[in-house]
Amino acid sequence: AAEARMLELPFIHDEQLTRRMRLRFQSLQQKNLRPQDGEKLLQPNEHIYRVDFIQQHQLCFLRWDIQLERPGKVTVTGTSQHWTPDLTHLMNRQLLEPVGIFWKKPGAKEVECNEADAQEFGERIAELAQIRKVMYFLLTFTDGLEPAQLKGSIVFKA
Predict the structure, then answer these.
(1) Helix (H) or strand (E) holding 126
(2) Could you name the domain of life of the organism this protein comes from (predicted)?
(3) Helix (H, G, I), strand (E, B), or coil: what is residue 95?
């Protein structure tokens, strides 16, 4: 029997989309306008990432590969946007549950996570991949962690 292939799909920092969402926030502030009801405005510690599915079917979630260069925490939230979204008007209802929370404690070598939520989230991503070529994620960095200090991917059995 042929051995199952591993497929590692990296998180790609979508700087252009992140910038566009920040401009929306600035525009509202400058015009002294309120966001739409339920609109999610990007905070300074939040960034948009995407995963491009080079294969969409027969994916079985194996694990997260999240590496943090320093102590801190990153929260990974999936969005329900399809194809090429305009996330500048991202609504809270478009944020998926559960979220993946990954952290590294001072002095620790390994990144930890809430295993149950991370497993459920990974399985949900494998299901969503069947109808999406790209999936967008909102990553929230806390405890001084920044995007340059993260390297992450999702590993599937294909």
Answers:
(1) helix 115-128
(2) Eukaryota
(3) strand
Query: Which residues neighbour 14 within 8 Å (Cβ) at sequence distance 6 or greater?
Result: 48, 49, 50, 136
The pLDDT tens digits along the chain (158 residues) read: 445 689 999 999 999 999 999 999 899 999 999 999 999 999 999 999 999 999 888 999 999 999 999 999 999 999 987 655 677 788 999 999 999 999 999 999 999 999 999 999 999 999 999 988 899 999 999 999 999 999 999 999 99
**Assigned CATH topology for domain 6-27+38-157:** Jelly Rolls (2.60.120)
Full-prediction pTM beyond 0.90? yes
Domain boundaries, the chain: 6-27+38-157
Phi then psi dihedrals of residue 132, to 5 deg = -135, 145
What is the CB neighbour count within 10 angstroms for residue 21? 22
Distance between CA 41 and CA 21 in Å, rounded? Answer: 7
The answer to whether 52 and 144 are in contact (CB under 8 A) is no
